[in-house]
């Protein structure tokens, strides 16, 4: 195993070599889905009617987002049922609904029919989604939920850790898409980050070879984006908290525009 600094230099040299061999290689970009849960968190903090989620979604689209993500949690701490229905009706919004595999929420999803559903694990007292879905340990439940949602015409994605066992389970689940949990990389120390990034890179490659579309999300910010953009085969990054935090200073449209511009530099990552 290489020490962290050797690993970093190895990657720098590989990228330089790639640019020398393929100088004209054009950036292909990566799509941005903006998670607006925390716009709803502000509203729920006071029980007001504002800020308006549909207006927030439109500001994200104006800033260059390709999709809007929301998480209808069982405890309804931010997104409410009415938000899901309202955003589904909002013109131009490609809606990705994050949800746990629970009958009540599956029924709502089948009624609303968002463009995409991302199945996530949920623990009532967690601050945010901790860890990925155990697609391998709950194969039957995941398979059934994927089948039910797919039958309603919804594209299903599984939010999983960058782990070979989970990727293989996802490939057998019937879901055409995965979202790799980037939280461990994004929250890692400088010493721990290279190992976590290698995990993302390897498992994105594996998922791609298994025919899965690869998205990623959790904890991504402009500060850690460089590492994330070295992950290959990325289609969409779902980003929420850092964008909503940045919007306090520059406004939502501008905060999204900054992230969307950064994602344009994606050239397919390390392959
Ligand atoms: N993707 C999934 C599946 C999530 O659960 C979350 C958090 O709700 C995100 C992406 C966005 O994470 P963050 O808010 O840290 O950018």
β-strand number: 8
State the distance separating the first and last CA atoms: 20 Å
CATH homology superfamily: Aldolase class I
* Number of helices, where a helix is a run of at least 4 consecutive DSSP H or I residues: 12
Low-confidence stretches: 1-8, 14-26
Give the key terms.
single chain, 271 residues, alpha/beta, TIM Barrel, eight-stranded parallel beta barrel, 12 helices, 15% strand, binds pyridoxine-5'-phosphate
What features would you describe in this structure?
By secondary structure, this protein is an alpha/beta fold. The chain has a single domain, classed as Aldolase class I (TIM Barrel), CATH 3.20.20. Helices cover 47% and strands 15% of the residues. It contains twelve helices and eight strands. An eight-stranded parallel beta barrel has the order 1-2-3-4-5-6-7-8, surrounded by eight helices. Helix 3 (53-62) packs across helix 12 and helix 11 packs across helix 12 (252-263). It is globular, with a radius of gyration of 18 Å. Mean pLDDT is 91; it is low at 1-8 and 14-26. Residues 35, 37, 71, 98, 118, 120, 128-129, 159, 179, 217-220, 238-242 line the site of pyridoxine-5'-phosphate.
């Amino acid at each position: 195993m290489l020490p962290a600094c050797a690993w970093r230099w190895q990657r720098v040299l590989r990228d330089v070599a790639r640019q020398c061999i393929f100088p004209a290689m054009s950036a292909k970009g990566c799509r941005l889905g903006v998670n607006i849960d925390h716009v709803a968190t502000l509203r729920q903090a006071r029980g007001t009617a504002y800020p308006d989620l549909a207006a927030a979604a439109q500001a994200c689209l104006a800033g260059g987002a390709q999709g809007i993500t929301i998480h209808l949690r069982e405890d309804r701490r931010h997104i409410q049922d009415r938000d899901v229905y309202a955003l589904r009706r909002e013109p131009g919004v490609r809606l990705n609904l994050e949800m746990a595999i629970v009958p009540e929420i599956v029924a709502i999803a089948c009624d609303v029919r968002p463009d995409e559903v991302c199945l996530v694990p949920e623990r009532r007292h967690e601050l945010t989604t901790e860890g990925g879905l155990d697609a391998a340990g709950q194969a039957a439940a995941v398979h059934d939920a994927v089948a039910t949602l797919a039958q309603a015409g919804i594209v299903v994605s599984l939010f999983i850790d960058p782990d070979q066992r989970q990727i293989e389970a996802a490939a057998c689940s019937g879901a055409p898409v995965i979202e790799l949990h980037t939280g461990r990389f994004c929250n890692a120390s400088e010493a721990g980050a290279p190992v976590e990034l290698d995990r993302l890179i390897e498992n994105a490659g594996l998922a791609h070879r298994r025919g899965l579309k690869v998205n990623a999300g959790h904890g991504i910010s402009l500060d850690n984006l460089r590492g994330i953009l070295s992950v290959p085969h990325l289609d969409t990054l779902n980003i929420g908290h850092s964008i909503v935090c940045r919007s306090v200073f520059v406004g939502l449209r501008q905060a999204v525009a900054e992230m969307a511009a950064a994602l344009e530099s994606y050239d397919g990552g390390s392959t």
